[in-house]
Amino acid sequence: FADRDGYIWFDGELLPWRDAQVHCLTHTLHYGMGVFEGLRAYATELGPAIFRLEEHTKRLFNSAKILGMEIRHTPEQINQACIDAVRANNLSSAYIRPMSFYGSEGMGLHADSLKTHTIVAAWEWGAYLGAENRERGIRVQTSSFTRHHVNIAMCRAKANGNYMNSMLAVQEAARAGFDEALLLDVDGFVCEGSGENFFMVRNDVLYTPTLTSALEGITRDTIIQLAAEEGIEVQERRITRDEVYICDEAFFTGTAAEVTPIRELDGRSIGGGKRGPVTEKLQQRYFDIVEGRDPSHSYWLKVVD
Ligand code: PMP
């Protein structure tokens, strides 16, 4: 992935892709203390448009604040860096990855001599959980790995180190032949996927877990707003694993995963094993908005011209 043409924004400069390197003593590589974001730009009639850019940048700065890291750029500069990364690579649609990390200025855990560096990369990335699964839905397994405890990892932060837990879970699920993992929280309640928030529908009500150790997803927030507009009742509350077994519909949300139906959990078919009508409606609205066909939320799109 390092050996390709293109440009990566690195501490304020657009560097040729192959030259955007760090040293092997990069602090974040050793201890995982870093923060990142994932955004998408969609191809629209007006050109590539970044979805909810300001909210993602805000979350990047909030993540850094939680970890006590100081990003040496302004939110406006990071917004512009995301735009520049899409433009410099001539992308019509893109996945965008800002990351702030500690450099190789020292090794101690105090991190007092360290500088925070920031990169923004952008590349073409199709449907994360498979294009055909947007309609067909995915097969999910409850993970044997528990999601973070809120006082062990800082779950409001999209922090690099938090993803060790996600990788353990998704790799375990994949080895067992499933598409994705569903992680439970320390109390045994449904939390989220390895990189997605969770929703389910029962008796026409949309439920999503309260945010304890799940990430405060921007797609989650989008879906909650769209459901309200559609007159669908939304409740945030604790959800048990057995409730999911008997729900009418379930789906994951995330920038990479978008809106992906879940057709099976632990060998139990959900909603007859296919995408349900509420999922389909919300998914349709989501894609109409992000791809610029529905102008009702055009303020969520930042056109890269
Ligand atoms: N949970 C986790 C653990 C994630 O990594 C992501 C992806 N950022 C999400 C939820 C969904 O967040 P968003 O909708 O902001 O992409």
UniProtKB/TrEMBL annotation:
Protein's organism: Halorhodospira halochloris (Ectothiorhodospira halochloris)
Protein purpose: Acts on leucine, isoleucine and valine.
PROSITE patterns referenced in this protein's UniProt entry, alphabetically: AA_TRANSFER_CLASS_4 (PS00770)
Domain of life per record: Bacteria
Recorded catalytic activity of this chain's protein: L-isoleucine + 2-oxoglutarate = (S)-3-methyl-2-oxopentanoate + L-glutamate; L-leucine + 2-oxoglutarate = 4-methyl-2-oxopentanoate + L-glutamate; L-valine + 2-oxoglutarate = 3-methyl-2-oxobutanoate + L-glutamate
InterPro entries documented for this protein: Aminotrans_IV, Aminotrans_IV_CS, Aminotransferase-like, B_amino_transI, BCAT-like_C, BCAT-like_N, BCAT_family, Class-IV_PLP-Dep_Aminotrnsfr
Protein name per its UniProtKB record: Branched-chain-amino-acid aminotransferase
Cofactor: pyridoxal 5'-phosphate
One GO MF term: L-valine-2-oxoglutarate transaminase activity
Transmembrane stretches, start-end: none
Enzyme's top EC category: transferase
E.C. designation(s): 2.6.1.42
Family to which the UniProt record says this protein belongs: Belongs to the class-IV pyridoxal-phosphate-dependent aminotransferase family.
GO cellular component term of the entry, any: cytosol
UniProt keyword list: Amino-acid biosynthesis, Aminotransferase, Branched-chain amino acid biosynthesis, Pyridoxal phosphate, Transferase
